[in-house]
Amino acid sequence: MRKKLAAATTGLLLITGLGVGVGSATSASAVTRGNYCGIYTLAEPEVSYGDRGDAVKAVQCALNRSVRGVNLAEDGIFGGLTYNAVVKFQGCAGLAKDGIVGPKTWRQLDNWSDWDTKAFWIC
Asked: What's residue 121's pLDDT?
């Protein structure tokens, strides 16, 4: 019985990454609670209207998972629809509604987009 318990405990530690030397560390703040939107990039540069690229895709993904009904194309183009969704999100998060995704907006996007259920929409 003890051998089975020890084997099960070891297996659990390996699966969860709590075992010694298992898992990897990262410094990006985007990696929390299983961030789905990190598939695009873990970089979080300031992005705003007119910008393009993987960071914009990550913003669009996070907005889709945080704001009810935005349904943004995750195309990496920061256009009018993305701008409007950012402003709406910022208002719901109690941030300045400037349409610019800087450190404070990234932090809130990271927090709200990490939930795996739509029961946790911010607005």
From this structure: 67
Q: Is the pLDDT of residue 2 over 90?
A: no
- Reported for 80-85, long-range contacts at CB under 8 A and 24+ positions apart, including other chains, are 80/49, 82/49, 82/56, 83/48, 83/49, 85/60
- Domain residue limits, the chain: 27-120
The domain defined by 27-120 folds into Muramoyl-pentapeptide Carboxypeptidase; domain 1 (1.10.101)
* pLDDT for the residue numbered 7: 44
CA–CA separation, 29 and 108 (whole Å) = 11
HSE-CB for 25 with a 13 A CA cutoff: 3
Tokens 């990496």 locate to: 76
